[in-house]
Amino acid sequence: MNQKTQVQIPLTTMCPSASGESGAIFTFGKSKFADNVPSRFWLKNDRPLRISCGDEHTALITENGKLFMFGSNNWGQLGLGTKATVNKPTCVKALKSEKVKLAACGRNHTIIYTTQGNVYAAGGNNEGQLGLGNSEERNYFELVDFFRKHGPIKMLAAGSNTSAALTDGGTLYVWGDNSEGQIGLGKESNALSPQELSVGKSVSWISCGYYHSALVTMDGALYTFGEKDSGKLGLHTNKLANHRVPQLVEGITGKVLQVACGGGHTVALTEDKLYTFGLGQFGQLGHGTFVFEAWLPRDVEYFRKGLVRHVECGENHTAVITDSGLLYTFGDGRHGKLGLGEENFTNQFKPTLCFRFLKHHVESVTCGGCHMLVLAKPRAKGSEEVTLEEEDVTEDIWEKPYSELMSDTTSSAILTTMNRSLSARVRRRERVGDIF
């Protein structure tokens, strides 16, 4: 493998004629692509398929199986053969002989899975998070031999110095830092190579936070393990003593479908409710201004109607995609990573609709330490109407600098749909003109 071969991605930040069909990647916060300023880009002759954020770096997989990386690179986590920061998405050409299928970005490392059934890792490795049997960092993607005989893989996850891989059959493998029990291996300090983690049932979902992790079993049970501060494990006091191994989380109604772990909080999604617990001082729990911690699972009132499709956590913020392709964010608003406008860097303590995506269908979202990326497509003409709640409408959407950002993709049909959904008080503001 050529450790220093790289090529810059052919992209544009202006609106090309074909961009609407393939979808765009929107960046918010300190993404290195455009720090503190919302931006976006498209791929030429390819389509973005999957995105993953680490603490300060990002991975992008295309429909053709190409892997592009950008962001901080002080540990070689971009896998480009150097440690130089990369501001523009750059193709990892050393992997061109394989098609990349999955990627997960940790604090300072990256793991990927290819359609050929291989797992590769790059970046920091001080706790064995690359799974290579040693603690030497890599600035290029190196094959993790263990998975030549274990797979195929359907999901990857990465935390501060931890990694996890989930097979199609529901077997979970973990490796890296276990100083707080965050990979669930009991008293072991770390694991330099993948180890099986079993709860006696097949696993369907895995998420690694900064110093804690969570898994969901095929029958919808939620287990958490790792650092026990601030209620991020959602466990009763009598279970906290065993926090270094997976513990069943109680108090959630219905089967858990997904779980996401942040720096100090956890979000669990069931068929009709969204539960959050842990640290909430920045608003990342979505329970309102005065909820700074929740030690046990508590459903988010706004989403009691259900219709949530996907959840993601950054260090101190949360993103939610609904069935209709709308995006809500809440939590730490610094650097504009919530995507709520060029002039809105404030913390949000309740789920807040990202109005810039009203004309788009949000396909996926990923959250990092200080940034967020969104993959979205323009809504098709004649598509199902988007209905807004009156509480979704805030003064922020009428700010001119914010509204002009997406003016080149204005759709009168979506605007009409939106106006029909708003209260009479708000509809009167139409007189200010077409704001989107």
From TrEMBL:
InterPro entries: RCC1-like_dom, RCC1/BLIP-II, Reg_chr_condens, Signaling_Regulatory_Domain. GO terms for biological process: cell projection organization; visual perception. Signal peptide: none annotated. The keyword 4Fe-4S does not apply. It is found in: Cytoplasm, Cytoskeleton, Cilium basal body; Cytoplasm, Cytoskeleton, Flagellum axoneme; Cytoplasm, Cytoskeleton, Microtubule organizing center, Centrosome; Golgi apparatus. Pfam families: RCC1 (PF00415), WD40_RLD (PF25390). One of its GO terms (cellular component) is cilium. Keywords: Cell projection, Cilium, Cilium biogenesis/degradation, Cytoplasm, Cytoskeleton, Flagellum, Golgi apparatus, Guanine-nucleotide releasing factor, Lipoprotein, Methylation, Phosphoprotein, Prenylation, Repeat, Sensory transduction, Vision. Residues 43-301 form the RCC1-like domain. Its main location: cytoplasm. The keyword ATP-binding does not apply. This is X-linked retinitis pigmentosa GTPase regulator. The gene is rpgrb.
